[in-house]
Amino acid sequence: MEKLIAYCGLRCDQCPAYEITLADDDARRAKLAVEWSREFKADIKPEHINCLGCTADTDVHFPHWHECPLRRCAQERDLATCAHCPDYSCDNLEQFFGFVPTAKETLDTVRKEIEGS
User: Fold this and answer.
1) Number of folded domains in the chain?
2) Which of 56, 54, 74, 55 is nearest to 64 (CA)?
3) Is residue 101 assigned to a domain?
4) Rounded distance between C-alpha atoms, residue 27 and residue 105, angstroms
């Protein structure tokens, strides 16, 4: 499977919500909703566990997709990912990296590939 990278550097292809959506697995959907509700202290319902990635041209996205400032900014700037931004890495992205350091690693790799070409 090809890498599917969100604007922020999350690896959608490695996300359980993405995998569950592709498999259309209601049992795993329900289990993940409980796990994420606890982990993120949020009311996540099984029907929320449907996502094909924030860069996908579809209506199948996790509910946070609508309010994500990183996604909105990248779309307004017509970027493939935040690594493609001339302002990489901004304060909002750095704050996000504090929660998800692997996203920084992913985008730093993309950035190096861009600069190397």
Assistant:
1) 1
2) 54
3) yes
4) 32
- Number of helices (H), then strands (E), belonging to the chain: the values are 5, 0
Q: What's the pLDDT band for 66 if we cut at 50, 70, 90? A: confident
pLDDT tens readout for residues 69-81: 999 999 999 999 9
Helix axes of 101-116 and 91-99: crossing angle, nearest 10 degrees: 130
Structural domain boundaries enclosing 72: 12-116
SS3 11: strand
How far is 115 from 117, CA to CA, in rounded Å?
6
User: Within a domain: residue 1?
Assistant: no
DSSP percent split of the chain into helix, strand, coil, nearest 5: 60, 0, 40
89 domain-assigned:
yes
Residue 2 falls within a domain, yes or no? no
CB 8 within 8 A of CB 103: yes
